Amino acid sequence: MKIGLIIQHADASRGGAERYTIDLARGLAHRGHDVHLISSSFVDIPWEVRQDKLPANGLTRFSRYNRFLHWAEQHVSTTPYDVTHAMLPVRRADIYHPHAGVEAESILSASSLDRTFNLKRKKAVAVEHDLILDREPVVLCLSNYIKQAVKRNYEVDEKKLVVLHNGVSLKRFDPASKPDAGKAVRKELGIGDKKIVGLIVAQDFERKGVREAILALSKASDARLVLLVVGNGNPNAYMKLAKRNRVAEYVFFAGPMKDVYAAYRAADFFILPTKHDPCSLVVLESLVMGLPVISTKQNGATEVMTPGKHGFIIEKPTNIDALCDAMKQMLVDTKRQAMSRQCLTLRPTLSQEHHVDEVTRLYMRLTGAGGPVTPSRAAR
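Structure (tokenized):
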């Protein structure tokens, strides 16, 4: 099949959607498909993936997005693809795959200032609306959590809604491949071997619940328990919070890591009291690394978990007592280790190979026998 994957920036360092798109492109290309990244910029693209570069210059995020929309529509209208798969709101696509959540819902939770002056967000909402209601693409949802958000905002045929959680590279995230990797992280940060480490990997500290995790750590009041935070957020306010609550010596901000594998190996469990996450990839990575997870119902990734078996799912991210109780249960070695073994049994169903297989099946369903469509069905 000739497949067009649409992403404004094909650069894995930019975040989850971009990283996902490049990983998917690689997986599809390895299966022999003719894969094209339709984008305005490219960084470290696999050699077997084609690059269809679109102009998207401009002085503002809005102007760059608007220009990208125009050229993406022109490109898809005139280029023969069997299927087009968009990771952001565009005007034409066979599959719409919202990675950050539904735009129509995100604007409702934005501040009044953002709703008024964020022209790119307003444009994305309008484009998403027209795409879903007029073009009627398949909406590929990262979780049932996102599926329900789509249904709250749009009247969509149930057959057009497909739920597929993200996948993880089992080769890259193999807990047995580098057994000593975590020791170096602990030594560098001064975390003792007997400490029980709860890991957070996040960029948006406020939304991901770093504050709530620190408060729960303080409430747990156990010197064995420490919190390791990895990500490029500003830690200053959170360190002040830790000092006020007398747990500063138990909170470690490691900054961003190019490869988070060592952080997973340094940890005993993973915690993410997120307020909103369509399907947190770091939660899935933690599970396949054998780390029990504490997260929230507002995280679509927890749908793959069984509470008490793979970790704990908190009803509300602001429930400090529930977070504290879950963290304290992670201090019980036998319970935590049993959960770890159960997490490892999830590896086959959370693999990137399984994910790409499911995406391919969806493409085949859309195209029948996978025969060529000229131009893309989205252009009709």
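The longest strand covers residues 34-39. The first helix runs from residue 16 to 30.
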